[in-house]
Task: inverse folding
């Protein structure tokens, strides 16, 4: 059984579930529920034109540029038109996790996104904790949640969100990550948020070294004092950083297909996975947004094996267990 450490809830709602929602919810209605600014951005995406003409989700999952990816993300979000729809999506997600032989997963959740849908933090917390209890009770699958404040909303908004979490659902999340626009909202702006999260007893990770380079990772380590790095793959651009990550045993949450789909590297052969591993950096292999990147953990592990061979791959796959955030009694 496997452990996955970097996977967004919204990017994990299975495609068959989203396609069913598209049958039930007319496209016009879906778009009309988007706030005006978001609707304008959605309409400006090249893949939206072909998607709206055909009504086929597959057209939306073609990314010529980064904003095409954002369009897919927003569409999947607004297909959740009720708390019940989110519950159904979670049930479908559990089926996928079981198919992938996952028995421990840390799912990243951005509560502000669900607020836009009319699902407040209290409702969201109830839905997520019921889903966790259910999956553990019925299937022995442990679903843990990572809180994701978004960089674009600023540090104060993240602190506000954290305060709400403390009041409403202090035990729901096992950790925090920083998501959103890495290039324009640098990690050093979020020190106060991460200080608060540490005081609350949350484990710390941050998306860094994905769209931005090595300095972003240095900032996440030295200023936010994270325990793991989300992606972190661009550490490969800085020799001193590679040595530091290896010496301090700071793991990278790598997502191979995501890096290729978003054009960080042109092909798997040019991906720095091998170099990072050979130089002693601890990594885990994850799916990030499997629906949007048309992958699964099984598929990511196959790619890993093809790049590093079976022995090293098994060590990496087993190693994920030692990097997980949640502590719980094992029987
Ligand atoms: Zn991510």
Result:
């Amino acid at each position: 059984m496997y452990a996955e450490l970097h996977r967004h809830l919204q990017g994990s709602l299975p495609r068959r579930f989203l396609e069913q929602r598209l049958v039930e919810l007319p496209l016009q209605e879906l778009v009309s529920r988007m706030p005006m600014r978001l609707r304008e951005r959605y309409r400006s995406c090249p893949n939206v034109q072909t998607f709206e003409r055909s009504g086929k989700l597959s057209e939306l999952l073609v990314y010529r540029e980064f904003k095409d990816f954002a369009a897919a993300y927003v569409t999947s979000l607004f297909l959740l038109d009720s708390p019940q729809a989110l519950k159904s999506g979670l049930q479908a997600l559990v089926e996928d996790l079981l198919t992938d032989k996952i028995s421990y997963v840390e799912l990243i959740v951005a509560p502000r996104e669900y607020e836009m849908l009319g699902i407040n933090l209290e409702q969201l917390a109830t839905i997520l904790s019921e889903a966790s209890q259910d999956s553990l009770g019925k299937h022995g699958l442990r679903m843990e949640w990572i809180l994701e404040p978004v960089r674009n909303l600023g540090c104060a908004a993240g602190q506000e969100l954290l305060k709400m979490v403390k009041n409403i659902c202090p035990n729901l999340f096992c950790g925090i990550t920083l998501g959103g626009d890495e290039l324009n909202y640098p990690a050093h702006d979020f020190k106060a948020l991460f200080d608060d999260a540490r005081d609350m007893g949350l484990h710390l990770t941050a998306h860094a070294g994905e769209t931005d380079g090595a300095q972003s990772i240095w900032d996440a380590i030295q200023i936010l004092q994270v325990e793991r790095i989300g992606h972190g793959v661009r550490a490969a651009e800085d020799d001193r950083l590679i040595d530091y990550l290896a010496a301090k045993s700071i793991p990278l949450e790598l997502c191979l297909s995501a890096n290729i789909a978003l054009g960080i590297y042109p092909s798997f052969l040019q991906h720095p996975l091998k170099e990072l591993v050979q130089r002693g950096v601890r990594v885990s292999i994850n799916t990030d947004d499997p629906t949007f990147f048309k992958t699964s953990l099984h598929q990511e592990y196959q790619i890993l094996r093809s790049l590093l061979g079976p022995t090293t791959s098994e060590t990496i796959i087993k190693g994920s267990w030692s990097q997980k955030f949640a502590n719980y009694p094992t029987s």
